[in-house]
Design goal:
Elements lengths: L15 E6 L5 H8 L2 E7 L3 H11 L18 E2 L15 E4 L22 H14 L6 E7 L9 H13 L3 E8 L10 E8 L14 E2 L5 E2 L31 H16 L8 E2 L13 H4 L4 E2 L9 E2 L2 H7 L33 H10 L3 H15 L4
Parallel strand pairs: 1-2, 1-4, 2-3, 4-5, 10-11
Antiparallel strand pairs: 5-7, 6-7, 8-9, 11-12
Helix pairs in contact: 1-9
């Protein structure tokens, strides 16, 4: 009788499963997929973000958008408050850029019930349910604004850490990272949580990458950040002759920006517009309100005798590290930078300019998430 042929697993093709909560337009999805992850569940309530998400990821993970007999999505959830816990597929990594809300009962020491009424509670509830059925997630990968560290005099962070460490039994490390060290010209600081189950991940610590060097390898020593990959605002720009005239702000708006900045300066405030030349190594943080007046990032056009202009939606997306072709690049070499290589899917903008600005302003910076994902995979999941 002939022996059965033994087929060995191809370790390089093994994938880990993740869920994408507060998914937005898929910054976590883009990054996690690029390092071998498979998304099995996502949740996002904003209808326009859902349109962008499905348009860009349906071809990548068609099963994520499967529907039941009634035509309802099975795994692409809308309101996280309506999640049926027993219908969330098992997964290895939970990803989420959860919104920061006031914790009215923080510090009452009632376990993760302390977070009820906040969206963090939904994360805790999903994880707690998986623990109870013996399917504890290996890793939690979370992102929030830097200010969370000091919110309510540190009590909010204290509550979150207590829930993660004492109630859910995870090892937790947190770190503030800046996107400007990861190959995008944006001064964007965010707080990251990496949490792991020591019974499934045999790591004693997690070493956060602080940036990327010129060869796109992780930098772990703060003293080496001066060797981070160089960037400039010009890297994200579309060709000048393809910029719609409507991007140039009006005389009235430009005057308003200048007068407001003068008033704020006189009152000892630092708020006002920020103007950047294309050779600037980075610009300000783009926000969800960018569509209103573009004040935080205006591109200088004085050499043309014109008022400053806003970023185009394509440029706003590139600033967050998405690969978007748009009308091409002002400088040909920028088309081959780390964010535009083939491992990242091409992002398509399928909503209005206003919604696109809002979505990109709310997004994570993809290269930061991707670099962290690589290290989670290597240090914690032990997948090469």
């Amino acid at each position: 009788m002939p022996s059965k042929k033994v087929v060995k697993d191809d370790k390089s093709k093994l994938k880990f499963k993740f869920i994408d909560l507060f998914a937005g337009i898929g910054g976590f999805h883009t990054a996690m997929h690029s390092v071998g992850g498979k998304c099995v569940f996502a949740s996002e309530w904003d209808k326009n973000a859902r349109i962008t998400y499905e348009e860009n990821y349906k071809a990548i993970e068609p099963s994520l958008f499967a529907k039941d007999k009634e035509g309802n999505y099975k795994f692409f959830n809308a309101d996280i408050n309506d999640v049926e816990l027993d219908k969330v597929p098992d997964f290895d990594v939970l990803c989420g850029g959860f919104p920061c809300q006031a914790f009215s009962i923080a510090g009452k020491r009632k376990g993760f019930e302390d977070t009820r009424g906040t969206l963090f509670f939904n994360i805790a509830a999903i994880v707690d349910h998986k623990i109870k059925i013996g399917k504890k997630p290996k890793v939690l990968f979370l992102e929030n604004v830097k200010g969370l560290k000091n919110h309510d005099h540190g009590k909010t962070l204290e509550t979150l850490l207590r829930v993660l460490q004492e109630d859910l039994k995870y090892e937790v490390r947190i770190k503030v990272l800046n996107a400007k060290y990861f190959g995008v010209p944006q001064n964007r600081e965010r707080l990251f949580f990496v949490c792991w189950d020591k019974e499934q991940c045999s790591a004693d610590d997690f070493n956060f990458p602080l940036g990327l060097d010129k060869s796109l390898k992780s930098i772990f020593d703060v003293k080496e950040l001066d060797k981070a990959v160089s960037t400039k605002v010009g890297d994200i720009l579309e060709p000048d002759d393809m910029i719609p005239e409507k991007m140039t702000i009006s005389d009235k708006l430009w005057l308003g920006h200048q007068l407001r900045k003068e008033r704020n300066r006189a009152n000892g405030k630092g708020f006002g517009y920020s103007l950047f030349k294309e050779d600037a190594v980075y610009c300000s943080t783009i926000s969800a309100r960018y569509w209103k007046d573009g004040s935080e990032i205006l591109i200088d056009q004085s050499q043309k005798g014109k008022n400053p202009r806003k970023l185009t939606p394509v440029e706003a997306g590139r600033l967050q590290g998405y690969k978007i072709v748009g009308n091409g690049w002002k400088y040909a070499e920028a088309a081959d930078n780390q964010n535009n290589k083939n491992k990242l899917p091409t992002m398509r903008i399928v909503v209005s300019d206003k919604e696109a600005y809002h979505q990109f302003g709310n997004s994570v910076a993809v290269p930061v998430i991707r670099t962290l994902a690589k290290e989670i995979k290597r240090q914690l999941l032990k997948i090469k």
